[in-house]
Amino acid sequence: MKAVVYEGPRQVGVENVPDARIEVPTDVLVRVTTTNICGSDLHMYEGRTDLEPGRVLGHENLGEVVEVGPGVVRVRVGDMVCVPFNVACGFCANCESGLTAFCLTTNPEPGVDGAAYGFADMGPYNGGQAELLRVPFGDYNCLVLPEDARERQTDYVMLADIWPTGWHATQLACVQAGDSVVIYGAGPVGLMAAYSATFKSAGMVMVVDRHPDRLAKAEEIGAIPIDDSKTSPVDQVMELTHGRGADRGCECVGYQAHDPQGHEHPNMTLNNLVKSVRFAGTIGVVGVFVAMDPGSPDDLYKQGEIAFDYGMFWFKGQTMGNGQCNVKNYNRQLCTLIHEGKARPSWVVSHELDLDDAPGGYEHFDRRDPGWTKVVLHPAGTG
Ligand SMILES: NC(=O)c1ccc[n+]([C@@H]2O[C@H](COP(=O)([O-])OP(=O)(O)OC[C@H]3O[C@@H](n4cnc5c(N)ncnc54)[C@H](O)[C@@H]3O)[C@@H](O)[C@H]2O)c1
Ligand SMILES: [Zn+2]
Ligand SMILES: [Zn+2]
């Protein structure tokens, strides 16, 4: 099968690799029709993880079931399914409590909880930027989509990761009706967090970034854009909240946070959140941080440590939640919002490409070229 393979820093190739196949009785085999490039792929693409060359990328996958193992009882050949980026078993203590991002059985690395497709340090699973994807524990992991799935793939595919993740940011931040919310990052995840906060009837949503095209997307859904290349985002949030700070904050950037000039400061968004969220406010961090980052220009962060304003965070009595999203906690409900015509998360999509054009897609999205907000790949062709 054809697949997008990580070859080394800033190098992906579309290669022929052995077909994904049913390996154990509980597997489902999906012919991938829609699969996205994610900001998480970019950490790997830029060589800022220990992902080994040769791995197939892609953890935001949707397609048609073409084969099921003999132990699969629910999912059927022909079903259209969206697959959460988490590979989860469904029967461990964490899965049973809804913590599918921290599944205790699917990552073979001792002492590491949680697994994902085509992801550094998240188990051996190949990704779905390919013609075929093996889905372990298929009955548990496949969200079977409604009858309009084929026509609305670019909406439903957002259920694999970024919409649940944006929603998760607002859950961790405890966003409630009427709240003011500041979101750092207007990439696809930050935009989905803004979208989610809006669904939760937030009173005011402010989104910080420096890319005018991305800020314009935020504005399209009624958020207030804050361009941190023109103004201090902290001052701006303070002004908009009458000097109090936002009730809630979301981090949707991650460890490669940088200033508008491009210099990386892994503590930048976290400290800006502490400053721009109010006393006793709540913060949700879904931007990825890693335990070790040898390639970081920041000496502390090479060891995974951050110069975090803990004193101010404590003094303000703030609370912070963080980590990978447990996609299964939200994907079914968000699916209903799409099916019922209440949500159209495909509004973030800027490009739909053939799998063969993935290397160019990665290049543009990685440079955050104007207009490249979210890239969707179609392994079976765009036609
Ligand atoms: N927790 C999860 O389950 C989960 C799931 C998906 C993605 N992620 C992570 O979320 C993060 C964002 O993903 P994305 O797809 O939106 O990626 P992205 O890289 O396209 O978007 C990040 C945005 O942040 C902006 N930015 C950089 N520094 C900033 C700063 N100091 N202040 C404000 N904005 C700044 C960039 O200009 C960019 O637009 C990544 O770290 C990704 O790995 C986490
Ligand atoms: Zn993703
Ligand atoms: Zn589990």
Domain count: the total is: 2
CATH homologous superfamily of the largest domain - what is it? Medium-chain alcohol dehydrogenases, catalytic domain
Determine the mean pLDDT: 98
Low-confidence stretches: none
SS strand fraction: 15-25%
Q: Using the alpha-carbon principal axes, give the shape.
A: globular
Largest sheet: 7 strands, mixed
- CATH T-level topology of the largest domain: Quinone Oxidoreductase, Chain A, domain 1
- What's the CATH class label of the largest domain? Alpha Beta
Based on helices, strands and strand pairing, what is the structural class?
A: alpha/beta
Distance from N terminus to C terminus (CA atoms, Å) equals 19 Å
Ligands: nicotinamide-adenine-dinucleotide, zinc ion
Relative helix content? 25-40%
Count the E strands.
15
- Helix tally? 13
CATH architecture type of the largest domain: Alpha-Beta Complex
- Topology pattern, helix = H, strand = E: EEEHEEHEHEHHEHEHEHEHEHHEHEHE
Q: What gyration radius follows from the Cα positions, in whole Å?
A: 20 Å
Organism: Microbispora rosea
GO molecular function: metal ion binding
Cofactor: Zn(2+)
Keywords: Metal-binding, NAD, Zinc
Identify the notable features of this structure and list them briefly.
binds nicotinamide-adenine-dinucleotide, 7-stranded mixed sheet, 383 residues, Quinone Oxidoreductase, Chain A, domain 1, Rossmann fold, ADH-like_C, 15 strands, zinc, 6-stranded parallel sheet, binds zinc ion, alpha/beta
